[in-house]
Design a protein that fits this description.
8 strands; alpha/beta; single chain; 160 residues; Rossmann fold; 5 helices; four-stranded parallel beta sheet
Length: 160
């Protein structure tokens, strides 16, 4: 239901600016975000596994966030400044996610930890094994004061 309402907002505001990244002098309209979301959904296919978004907040980040909400993809955004050990712990708590990243050194490091990582800078079809994750799950990771990641699920039925 949320995805359908969001798609309506995107289509009725197609030419309005949805994202303004002043530091990069970039504006993205709702129409551009929706088109990019559809392209990402097609490129990533039906992975069926949660996605961990490990990107700086540039255009690609917002395109992927739109894809996750519009196409009901389960995901957990993480601050790219988090250390690899915390990213690995969140991935372990999520089960078997796929990490989306755009930093070469980080990709190599995360892969060396045995994580499935997609380099989102590559304009090719991605190859990862699929799963059967329930769609439309949104997770927030917090470590609180313990340093141990805790996941909180926000169900799409609670989003308005």
């Amino acid at each position: 239901m949320f995805a359908e309402r969001l798609r309506t907002v995107f289509s009725t505001n197609e030419h309005r600016v949805a994202v303004d990244i002043a530091s990069l002098s970039i504006e993205l309209s709702y129409g551009e975000l929706a088109a990019a979301a559809d392209e990402w959904s097609h490129a990533l296919g039906s992975i069926g596994r949660p996605l961990v978004l490990l990107l700086d907040k540039g255009p690609r980040y917002y395109e992927l966030m739109a894809m996750m909400f519009l196409h009901r993809v389960s995901f957990c955004p993480l601050d790219p400044l988090n250390p690899d050990t915390l990213v690995a712990a969140v991935c372990s708590a999520l089960g078997n996610p796929v990490v989306l990243c755009d930093a070469s050194d980080r990709i190599r490091s995360l892969r060396s930890l045995g994580l499935d990582v997609i380099d989102v800078r590559e304009p090719r079809e991605f190859e990862v094994s699929s799963g059967n994750c329930e769609p439309g799950r949104y997770f927030i990771s917090t470590s609180g004061s313990t340093g141990v990641p805790k996941l909180v699920e926000v169900r799409s039925s609670t989003l308005r």
